[in-house]
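Work Package 3 (structural annotation) set out to generate three-dimensional models for the target panel prioritized at the project kickoff. During this period the team completed the workflow that converts sequence records into discrete structure tokens, so that structures can be stored uniformly alongside our sequence database. As a representative example, we reproduce one entry of 112 residues exactly as it appears in the project archive.
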Amino acid sequence: MKMIAAVIKPFKLDDVKKALADAGVHGMTVTEVKGFGRQKGHVELYRGTTYEVNFLPKIKIEVAVPDEKIEEIIKAISETARTGEIGDGKIFIYSLDDVLRIRTGERGKEAI
């Protein structure tokens, strides 16, 4: 099992959510986050004054998936979230040792 954490542009959330549902993902955690990558933020002009925005708003999506679905899920996220512009985001893949569904006590792949 793997945990996929994808950091994407906020306006891409609905598209990625639909692509994941189409790929068979039944649940996800979505968090509003802020951060920066190689671009280190950007400069904005507001009421005649320039200021530097160091942390850009992003969305972090986390999904737990069985090993056999990992490539399909990564492809769904990367193709749907891609705009071709700087700041499209990143996908992180972690090994998941175990999962426990609290309500039923199911463990492992059945708990996903």
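The beta strands are 2-8, 29-35, 42-46, 49-53, 56-65, 89-95.
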